[in-house]
Amino acid sequence: MKAALATKFGKPLIIGEVPTPEPAEGEVLIRIEACGVCHTDVHAVDGDWPVKPGLPFIPGHEGIGRVVSLGKGVKSIAVGDRVGVPWLLDACGLCDYCLTSRETLCGHARYGGYSANGGFAEFCTAPAAYVARIPQGLDPLHAGPIICAGVTTYKGLKVADCHPGEWVVISGAGGLGHLAIQYARVMGLQVAVVDVAEDKLALARSLGASLTVNASVDDPVKFMQDMIGGAHAVLVTAVSTDAFSQATGMLRRGGTCVLTGLPSGSFPISIFDTVLRCLTVRGSLVGTRADMREALAFAAAGKVRPAIEIMELEDVNTVMDRLRHGTLKGRAVLRIAHY
Ligand SMILES: [Zn+2]
Ligand SMILES: [Zn+2]
Which ligand is nearest to the CA of 39? Predict the structure, then answer.
């Protein structure tokens, strides 16, 4: 099969022929139709996170396709079903986290296109119990971004603990942020958006953001405090550490800051400010299988639609470079098969 293979950290992916995998017990073999490209794929390929993938490997955790064969013991999925191979490839199913519907925290979790080969290929295997089921009426090109970027922002907003009518700031209007705006609107929230690119802010407004601020021109902290008295929640999807430093400052008292973007590095938090203003800062990582089902249902109902740029597998290195430079609007999706 054709695949994009990472053979050396920090080097371009190599497009070539590799053996088509066989589904092991409990796994399905999927003929990939489309796969979105996530900023996490850049980190995987660059090897710049503390835990690195084993080389060589095939990245991609937004792969969507139809099941073409079943490994031993698979009963929950049939040949022909359309599924997605997500970031949470599988988990142990037995630990405290797995038993309490928090499988994303499982210490034995494996990650798609990171701990195992992913969707930048014509075929991919995945554990049947953890694949995302793609609802009827949602095409693979638009389903791809939902199974990572979509579920990540949907879950992030759920744990922001906002109520309808309250203000949420979405920091970063890229691949994650442009979906966060739409999920926030579905939840009945008022949305303000911070970015440093005018075209991304224009996209944000077209998707329902009532307030936007360009952080390279205006101070977003002052802007949010002046305009709305601070937000009830801030969801940080940006990949710059500056955005994280600004985030708590944009909150009103008692507000919650949810971190989902993953630049390497750290940012300072004022102890005095956090205590006196009773702020909550929390991390949120993708979503559980239940979150996935909900996030996909909103997309299938037409309430959330990724802005996509369709590319070919051969374009993957160009897409990665554009992600590195922040010049992608919405999500790039590789079209791997015609359907
Ligand atoms: Zn991702
Ligand atoms: Zn577990």
Answer: 1
Confidence (pTM): 0.95
How far from 208 is each of 185, 204, 231, CA to CA, in Å?
7, 7, 17
The pLDDT tens digits for 253-268 are 999 999 998 888 899 9
- Are 91 and 112 in contact by the 8 Å Cβ rule? The answer is no
Distance 115 CA to ligand 2 centre (A): 16
Q: 302 C-alpha to center of ligand 2: Å?
A: 33
Measured between alpha carbons, how far is 63 from 112 in angstroms, rounded to an integer? Answer: 9
> Mind listing the domains of the chain with CATH numbers?
2-148+287-335 (3.90.180.10), 160-283 (3.40.50.720)
The answer for residues whose C-beta is within 8 angstroms of residue 181's C-beta and 6 or more apart is 170, 173, 191, 193, 204, 207, 208, 209
Q: Which of the ligands is closest to the CA of residue 43?
A: 1
